[in-house]
Design the sequence.
């Protein structure tokens, strides 16, 4: 009701038709609509008076009252006259009517508000729906276009497919045709061949007749004397008995061959069965102990559940070498089952191991990395400390050498150093002497070997000379062929001797190698004397791995 | 027209015989006492005895002509095939009897004896149909006579155990039939239709396998239990398997030591200058071999597996694909796969296995003989002056030596035994 005024302003400015539509809710009969318009329009304050004055003036008061009364009664309000006839206004009823009219007006305004609210709502809904509609239309267009495109592609592919099918059919037809051609040509060819062969046979017969009819005396065999049979027996007549015997022999040959083959197969079979048995045992031993399942016994007709019983049974049966179906089936079925179980077992183990391994690896990695870092840190510290120590030592040394300190202390120090040096020198001398001894030994053995070699070579040359002489002498009696044949062997013989010599020399070389073993180990230390300069130069490199002792020694050497 | 008999160890001439005409074919009898010399042009067969040089025998076929001649397994009968394959005459050296076998088939291998010499199979053709007759060699009695389902029989061969006879058809049809000794058909094998078929076959020494080489460059192996194919060996132009060893023959440049040149040049030096040494190199796999595709419009094309041989210990199979004439393929039978390929410089003429060991000798028409064994392979130069083109070779039954034949000469190659 607070919006009264705001509502009224647009109402006035708007078309009377709008109000006409909005107030359709009110149950007002259509013929009285126009008059209702007049009633419901609440004019503005300014035009209110003018409007009212236009309706009722001083002259037509009674007329306007009677008009109002008529309108009100038609609306269902009580009459505003005091009594049914008379011209006096019933004020109370007028006021009541006014009040009721106002109330009606309020109600109508409220209704109008509601209607307008709904109108707005519907308007926004409609906008929204229109947007949706537009979007959907777009989408529909797009999908339609897509469908068209896909349909086009589908059509193309189908036509391609049809072409390929057609080609394939053509090829197949061609192949069929060619095969037919080939077969027809083959039959024709065979027919022709047969015809030619018959002709040829006729010719042969004719020729044969001619040949035989001539009774060539030439066709004969001239033998000085007839030879005995290979096995010394006389020839036998051909009789039925011999025929039967031949048949028998033939069948014997065939049977023996079959028997041999069957024996081989039996042996193979037995071996394979043994192998299978072994495999089964091993598989069972590998598997974890299975719990007995009495249910399984009743399931199959064959006893498969208890592996030990199985082994026992089958072993017993194999002893009798039964190769009947059931035993074979049993064995193969049981092996298959055990193998499957083993496979599953191995698979589960694999999974476990992989899980454990991956887990272990991670841990190891973590631990090792940490450890590794710690260790590297430690090592680096150590290196630093060592380096500092070395530096300080060097400094001290320098000071010692440079500073003119007390004679006593220097002498003492020098003495100590000298002693150390002397001891070292003595050791090295000892080593040197040992090596010298070894060298002498080797040299002696070498000379001995050389002497021996010379002697052997001489002996060999003598042998060779003698043998060649012999050969030459014998050559004159033999043919040349034997020379060709035996010549290569002669060469082979000499190469054998050469091989032997080589072997002996190589054997002598072996002890030399053994002796030089320990010598080479000691050689590492001797370079100090042989290549002093290079050694000291090399030791100047400040390597982290070099021992600090060597460094110190080289420093001493330099001074001395 | 002389026949010279030499000692195999010393090549000393033991006997000398003179024949009436140019000898086309010679054969020893099974007991090594007689030699048969066949002269096809004159139609005469002369038989000589080793024990009695004075003994002679001449078989004259006269106008019937002579196309082939061979000994029977007992060494006392000679089977002559007359011209146009009119008949096979069985001449006996012990009795005066003569037997005839009519309508023999005019094919490459129409006559086959079992290894123990008991039975002989003869291929016959009557009324455009092929038949096989099985005779007992001891008394020449006909044991079995049956027809074969072949279009045009090409060859027959007994299995080494003497119980199965392999009969194969012409190359126009791939068909091989296996008959038992008593004439029952055991099995038929046909790998494909229409294309050219079987070119060569070989039985394994244990009769376990039958290798069939065909024009499609493949070898198919049948087993003796089911007579079904157990494997196929292909011979492609590119060897790609990493486990195959490929030995390639390469020429060694002759090392001419100029300091030692003397005049007149020694025999050895002359040889080394004019003949090229060769050796084997191992080629890295994959190796592509020289592939020849002959003209398709000629008959009997040089395609397919022309040579097949099993080694005597049944472990290896040597094959030659005529499309790749320079290569010898050696298959391991125990593993059923390709083991070695020998690539030669010239086309392979022939190869033969050592009768005792798995050792293969190959000749390619030059003066070298090539030996392969599982330990390796070696190229051996024949030390002769001039040309010696080895056309064929033949092993001694002890495996210690082999005869190398050229067109006009021959030499014997002795092999050293490894003393263990």
Sequence:
């Amino acid at each position: 009701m607070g919006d009264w005024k705001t509502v009224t302003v647009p109402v006035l400015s708007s078309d009377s038709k709008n109000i006409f539509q909005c107030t359709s809710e009110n149950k007002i009969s259509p013929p009285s609509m126009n008059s209702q318009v007049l009633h419901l329009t609440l004019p503005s304050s300014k035009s209110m008076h003018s409007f009212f004055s236009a309706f009722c003036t001083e002259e037509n008061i009674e007329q306007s009252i009677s008009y109002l009364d008529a309108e009100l009664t038609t609306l269902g309000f009580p009459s505003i006259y005091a009594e049914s006839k008379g011209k006096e206004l019933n004020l109370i009823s007028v006021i009541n009517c006014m009040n009721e009219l106002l109330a009606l007006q309020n109600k109508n305004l409220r209704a109008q508000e509601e209607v307008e609210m709904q109108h707005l709502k519907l308007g926004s809904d409609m906008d929204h729906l229109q947007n949706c509609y537009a979007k959907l239309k777009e989408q529909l267009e797009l999908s339609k276009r897509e469908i068209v495109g896909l349909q086009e592609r589908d059509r193309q592919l189908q036509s391609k497919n049809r072409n390929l099918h057609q080609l394939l059919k053509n090829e197949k037809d061609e192949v069929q045709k060619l095969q037919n051609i080939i077969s027809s040509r083959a039959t024709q060819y065979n027919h022709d061949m047969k015809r030619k062969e018959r002709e040829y046979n006729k010719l042969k017969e004719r020729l044969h007749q001619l040949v035989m009819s001539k009774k060539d005396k030439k066709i004969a065999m001239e033998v000085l004397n007839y030879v005995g049979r290979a096995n010394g027996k006389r020839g036998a007549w051909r009789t039925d008995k011999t025929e039967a015997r031949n048949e028998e022999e033939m069948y014997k040959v065939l049977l023996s061959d079959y028997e041999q083959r069957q024996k081989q197969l039996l042996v193979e079979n037995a071996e394979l069965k043994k192998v299978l048995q072994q495999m089964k045992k091993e598989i069972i031993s590998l598997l974890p102990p299975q719990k007995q399942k009495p249910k399984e016994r009743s399931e199959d007709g064959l006893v498969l559940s208890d592996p030990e019983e199985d082994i026992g049974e089958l072993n017993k049966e194999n002893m009798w070498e039964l190769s009947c179906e059931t035993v074979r089936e049993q064995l193969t079925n049981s092996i298959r089952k055990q193998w499957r179980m083993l496979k599953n077992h191995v698979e589960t183990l694999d999974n476990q191991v992989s899980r454990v391994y991956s887990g272990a690896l991670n841990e190891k990695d973590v631990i090792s990395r940490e450890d590794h870092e710690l260790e590297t840190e430690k090592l680096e510290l150590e290196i630093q400390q060592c380096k500092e120590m070395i530096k300080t030592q060097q400094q001290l040394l320098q000071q010692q050498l440079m500073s003119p300190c007390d004679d006593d202390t220097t002498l003492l120090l020098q003495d100590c150093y000298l002693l150390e040096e002397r001891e070292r020198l003595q050791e090295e001398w000892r080593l040197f002497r040992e090596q010298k001894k070894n060298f002498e030994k080797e040299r002696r053995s070498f000379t001995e070997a050389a002497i021996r070699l010379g002697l052997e070579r001489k002996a060999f040359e003598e042998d060779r000379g003698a043998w060649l002489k012999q050969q030459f002498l014998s050559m004159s009696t033999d043919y040349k062929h034997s020379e060709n044949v035996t010549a290569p062997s002669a060469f082979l013989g000499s190469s054998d001797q050469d091989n032997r010599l080589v072997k002996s020399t190589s054997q002598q070389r072996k002890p030399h190698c053994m002796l030089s073993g320990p010598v080479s180990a000691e050689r590492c230390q001797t370079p100090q004397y042989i290549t002093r300069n290079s050694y000291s130069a090399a030791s100047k490199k400040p390597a982290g791995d070099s021992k600090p002792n060597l460094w110190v020694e080289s420093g001493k050497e330099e001074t001395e | 027209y002389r026949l010279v008999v030499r000692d195999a160890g010393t090549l000393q001439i033991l006997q000398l015989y003179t024949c009436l005409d140019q000898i086309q074919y010679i054969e020893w009898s099974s007991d090594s006492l007689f030699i048969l010399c066949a002269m096809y042009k004159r139609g005469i067969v002369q038989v000589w005895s080793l024990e009695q040089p004075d003994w002679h025998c001449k078989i004259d076929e006269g106008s019937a002509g002579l196309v082939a001649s061979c000994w029977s397994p007992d060494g006392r009968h000679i089977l002559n095939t007359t011209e146009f394959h009119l008949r096979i005459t069985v001449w006996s050296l012990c009795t005066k009897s003569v037997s005839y076998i009519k309508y023999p088939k005019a094919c490459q291998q129409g006559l086959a004896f079992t290894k123990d010499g008991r039975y002989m199979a003869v291929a016959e053709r009557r009324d455009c149909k092929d038949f096989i007759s099985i005779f007992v060699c001891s008394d020449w009695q006909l044991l079995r006579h049956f027809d074969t389902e072949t279009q045009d029989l090409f060859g027959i061969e007994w299995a080494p155990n003497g119980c199965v006879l392999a009969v194969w058809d012409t190359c126009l049809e791939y068909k091989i039939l296996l008959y038992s000794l008593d004439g029952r058909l055991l099995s038929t094998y046909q790998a494909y239709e229409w294309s050219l078929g079987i070119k060569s076959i070989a039985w394994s020494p244990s009769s376990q396998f039958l290798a069939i080489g065909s024009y499609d460059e493949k070898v198919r192996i049948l087993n003796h239990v089911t007579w079904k194919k157990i494997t196929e060996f292909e011979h492609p132009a590119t060897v790609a398997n990493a486990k195959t060893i490929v030995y390639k023959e390469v020429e060694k440049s002759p090392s001419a030591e100029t300091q030692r040149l003397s005049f007149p040049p020694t025999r050895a030096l002359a040889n080394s200058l004019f003949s090229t040494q060769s050796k084997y190199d191992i080629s890295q796999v994959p190796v592509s071999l020289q592939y020849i595709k002959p003209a398709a419009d000629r008959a009997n094309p040089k395609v397919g597996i022309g040579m097949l041989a099993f080694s005597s210990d049944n472990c290896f199979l040597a094959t030659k694909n005529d499309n790749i004439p320079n290569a010898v393929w050696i298959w391991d039978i125990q593993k059923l796969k390709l083991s070695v390929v020998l690539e030669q410089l010239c086309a392979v003429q022939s190869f033969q296995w050592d009768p005792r060991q798995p050792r293969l000798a190959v000749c390619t028409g030059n003066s070298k003989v090539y030996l392969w064994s599982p330990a390796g392979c070696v190229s051996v130069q024949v030390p002769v002056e001039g040309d010696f083109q080895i056309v064929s070779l033949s092993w001694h039954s002890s495996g210690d030596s082999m005869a190398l034949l050229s067109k006009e000469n021959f030499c014997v190659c002795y092999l050293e035994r490894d003393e263990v």
About this structure: The two ends of chain A are 125 Å apart (CA to CA). Residues 536 and 557 of chain A are 9 Å apart (CA to CA). The beta strands of chain A are 220-223. Residues 1-41, 291-308, 483-560 of chain A have pLDDT under 50 and may be disordered.
